[in-house]
Amino acid sequence: MSKITRIVTLVVGLMSLFAAMSGVASASTWSASSTAAFTATGTSGTLSVGSNTLACSGGNATGAVTALSNAGPTWLSAANGGVSFTGCRIGGTPWHAYCSSYSLNALSFTGGVTTGDITLNTACLAGVGAVNGTGDVCSITGRPGATYTNPGTQGVLGVRATASMAVGNAPGRTCPPALGTGTATLSAFSFSTTSASPPSIRQP
């Protein structure tokens, strides 16, 4: 093989490699239809520490997709927002529960469904009194699996059941023994968008 032939072969090989790399980058780019704020309503769900169960009949969520596109195989914090749970009780005692912030992490996309998980940090609180007041309050942390189904008329965020949540004392507060602290089990529940133009999330 002549020197010129070897150079041509090398150039063609590099061009093929760059084209392949470009195709991979393009295929992994995420996109969203909108970054407008959305609202959603939730189904019932439970959080249990041992035999103690906090049961909520529903919830109201707000949020927004963080950007119109994201380059990469995964999209961390693809959407952020907050949740206020409704009709919460332990036994016959009313409780309050809310997450002032959550983050949806998009890890894969197939057939209109984004699969990933949700980051819940110490901004998730629950207590008998107003959780932003002076009463005893529990913090709830974890990263349950989740899916987001792109809207026909509604987008649906599904949260998967997990036995790896954690309940502890909120900063400077004490978690009431009616729930207690330790490893917690979260039931599956979902939120369906109620806003006029819910976002779609996808990979090409």
Low-confidence stretches: 5-27
Gyration radius (Cα, Å) is 22 Å
Distance between the termini: 42 Å
The coarse overall form would be elongated
Tell me the fraction of residues in β-strands, as a range.
over 45%
Mean pLDDT: 86
Q: Into which percent range does the helicity of residues fall?
A: 10-25%
Reading the helices and strands in chain order gives HEEEEEEEEEEEEEEEEE
Return the CATH architecture.
Answer: Beta Barrel
CATH topology: Porin
Number of domains: 1
Name of the CATH class: Mainly Beta
| Strands in their spatial order, largest beta sheet | 2-5-7-8-9-12-13-16
Protein structure class:
mainly beta
Helix count equals: 1
Major sheet size, sense and barrel closure: 8 strands, antiparallel, barrel
Strand runs, count: 17
Describe the protein's architecture and organization:
The protein is mainly beta. The chain has one domain: Porin. The protein is 12% helix and 54% strand. It has one helix spanning 3-27; strands at residues 29-32, 38-42, 45-49, 52-56, 58-65, 69-71, 75-90, 93-110, 113-120, 124-127, 137-141, 145-149, 156-159, 162-169, 182-186, 189-193, 201-202. The strands form two sheets. It has an eight-stranded antiparallel beta barrel with strand order 2-5-7-8-9-12-13-16. Strand 3 and strand 4 form a beta hairpin. The longest helix has 25 residues, at 3-27.
